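Q: Structure tokens for this one, please.
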Amino acid sequence: MSVRPTAAPQPPPVRRTRARRRTGVAALAAAALVSAAAIAPASAGIPAAKTPVPASYPQVAAKPYMGWSSWSLQSTNYPGVNPDGPGCFISEKNILTQAHALATKLKPYGYEYVNVDAGWQLGGDEYGRPVANPARFPRGMKALGDDIHQLGLKFGIYTVVGLGFDVYRDGNTPIYDAPGCFTRDIVYPDLRTTNGWDQAYKINYASPCAQKYADSIAKTFASWGVDFIKMDGVGPGSWKGAPDDPNHNNTEDVESWWRAVQNAGRPMQYTLSWSLSHRYADTWKANSNGWRIDTDVECYCDTIVRWTGSVVQRWWDVAQWVDDAGPGHWNNLDALNVGVGAMDGVNETERQTYMTFWAINSAPLFAGDDLTKLDAYGLRLLTNREVIAIDQAGVPARPLNQNQLQQTWYAKNADGSVTVGLFNLADSPATVAGRFDELGITGKAKVRDVWAGSNTSDVSGQVSATLPAHGSKLYKIYPNNLGAVSKPANVKATDVSRTTVTLNWRPSTGATSYKVYANGKQVATSASTSVVVTGLLPQTQYTFEVKGVDGGKSSEASAPVTMLTAKSGGPTRYEAEASTSTLTGNASANGCTLCSGGQKIGNIGYDASVTLNGITVPTTGTYLVKIAHTDGDTSRQSMLTINDADTYWVNYHGLGDNDWGTPQVVYLPVKLQAGSNSIKVSNPNGYIADIDWITV
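A: Here is the predicted structure, written as tokens:
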């Protein structure tokens, strides 16, 4: 969850350059998007991480966990779920009812965690350790955990980062098993606040008493039989914790809690919430078993979710996290609400797409529905063993590209097969295709339609399907002949100068090195999956291909990438705030210390836009355009309109911590005409990132 545990959701104040993403998402699902890797942001303000403690129980998160969580039901206004007002669902009776349903219906398929989210706690004991609300959990949490364990299930619990106001008690609360330590010793003298709602005092980990406090709570949870801990309100992330906001940097809390959990004497997963900042990914990986990459999936409305209000944004926000997930720590896309059609708030097509995307990304699969009311379709979705196996294989998918709403996501598996998801995110039917050469597949293959449970032999060239609005297909592709070395997949140009082009690609199975070709001639060799091709001519079109190599064995060439090098004297930078740019609506120049020229254009979106004029190239063709932007949100998207004609969309990976002053760069191929061009940056249905410059 990402709302205050004791109240209805309260969104933060909105500014045009920093608006919390709730509006405009629906319209984003009607346009094409381009996503490219962002340059790593500056690390200023990031404290040095302590040496992480090795995981004492690595098996607890060897695969993405599966189960059920209470928050989706607790947060919904669906009739009858919370009859006494928001948040009243959670209770011992209701949790055990769901646990029995999980054990009966879903446990045989691997679902095992019963996670009690916010609302179970009421204050703390004499040592400031959490205690259960007796009105909701009259027998306490250990008794609840015992009952869950008797069903062959595992028990999860919720906590919030920081020291709760209610247990501070004028600083006089003693810390358990820490003689001479009191709550006044673990906070800052000015009682500064922290967490996503500023509902706790920030803990000062320079005090040895602070670790003792984390230890005391972790051991309390262990004594109750807890198997899973969710810590909420963690920053940097969720639009707080930028380098100039140290009070919302909870990396020391996370490091301390990780140590406490590893030393608590019981295997317990430790996960973080809610929308974590990607620039701290290394800290999260070293000190947790997973993290939420986005805000709540729940819509806080009369259903649990809505496609356009909460689900579809995951396609854009998870892309920058793909390489961070793996055994021991997973990208959490939030609850999976596909089991009860009327309550879910998404139609059957969207429910299948929802399940498919979670599975292909190896996200934790935890339902949020009322499990006593699963409909037949929802039960089929949640219990498809092949789909579950794709999730549990732990190979997160990545987008082949995001330059259309018709997207192809894929994962290359250890056995040589390729898992492919086709997604139509548009609001009308469309054909979606995944080309074999771009997927690194050579020759013919058997194609398994996973949801249909059918096979097609000797398929060549591509997989494709005409899909309804928000529809999907899930395939496993098995090449007929694997070969000693597989074809490189997803070759992309990520930087271009007058005489160089930088290429990246996905690894080839069996390759020990790679040969790179330009216009049919070998121009480079690389031991890694990237290369800077040098010695090229300015303003010249090149077609690049890559082959995987192992000794004397070589793969077939990759799909070609065609690109023009920059003109003589280029690449040329065009400042968004230049006098030649055209601004509409409320778009305006804003100061930005780290931006080129000390300025950027912000407040872009809805009726506000910026058009960069006079972008001149001597030859018509495809150019690699770089866009420098600042984005403190999780991600934002904008439309690029070239010469009032061709339209592209670009996905700006955000820092997620409200830092609107650190520029990042995205790349995308754009077709330009010989002579002067204009590029309009806009989004008629939502706010976008602030724009610093464009280079061609």
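A few notes: The radius of gyration is 26 Å. The longest helix spans residues 208-223.
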